[in-house]
Amino acid sequence: MRRKRVPAAPLPQRDGIDPVRLRLPEDPEGTWPTVGAYLLGRYGAAVGAERIGAMLDAGRFVGADGRAAAGPEPYEPGRWLWFHRDLAPEERVPFEVGVVYRDERIVVADKPHFLATTPRGRHVRETAVARLRAGLGLPALQPAHRLDRLTAGLVLFVVRPEDRGAYQLLFKERRVRKEYEALAPYDPGVGLPLTVRSRIEKERGVLAAREVPGEPNAVSRIELVERLGAHARYRLLPETGRTHQLRVHMNALGLPILDDPLYPVVREDGPEDHRRPLRLLARTLEFADPFSGGARRFESRLALSDPA
């Protein structure tokens, strides 16, 4: 049985953020006699019954036809509703998102340190995708891959939804050459270049990933670029894309990336110091374009400041 197509959202984006979409589930037990009863049951514990009532009174839950849903309306399984969440205030990341390249299919952006790629957790408005959507007037813009919030550098975004799968497949099938730059301690006892292979696991709710015994699922090539006194500049070439892979591998070599708040020791939660970013930069992206077949190469315009 073919699934019904999801209707277009009747609400526009707000600050580059899509409205929340929900579909009323089947209710064979008759638990929810009205739309209001369902919304209260689903969201009341999180935001409070008074808030749900106020949102309904204000017409903030909207159906596919653009009409506001009223609380007393009979419950209708399968009905689509959209609404905008009340977002908590976010501290602005004091760096701009640069655009390295743009055409009708893709945008290649230079994401600054501390800015998330996409909404997650407490970072919603302060994300690269939200800023770019609003700034470039591209409401359908989506990333083809992710870059850690603390890492700066190149992120490939796709302009049209119908093109996104082709670019995502490049990353899934490891057909994108990614080159990173890092600043870390210098140790003449670590023979470079070398390729690190290990198994990395990241548990949900645990900040740091860890290496565990087993079949390797993470592969990184580490090269020394130049010595900078007690520190050095490194070229990092990941063959796989595990969470925190480069940070874990550098730490395992005894070369933790400078100003890393997780490796080797998890720093206590507190205000972020924007003057001391993680010294890790996604420097280069190279791939064959899935539509034209032409070679693409992009290089970040950002730079890592030399350690003091």
UniProtKB/TrEMBL annotation:
Ranges where the Pseudouridine synthase RsuA/RluA-like domain occurs: 106-252
Highest taxon of the lineage: Bacteria
Biased composition annotated in UniProt, kind: Basic and acidic residues: 15-26
Region feature (Disordered): 1-26
Alphabetical list of InterPro entries matching this protein: PsdUridine_synth_cat_dom_sf (IPR020103), PsdUridine_synth_RluA-like_CS (IPR006224), PsdUridine_synth_RsuA/RluA (IPR006145), RluA_PseudoU_synthase (IPR050188)
Catalytic reactions of this protein: a uridine in RNA = a pseudouridine in RNA
The protein's name: RNA pseudouridylate synthase
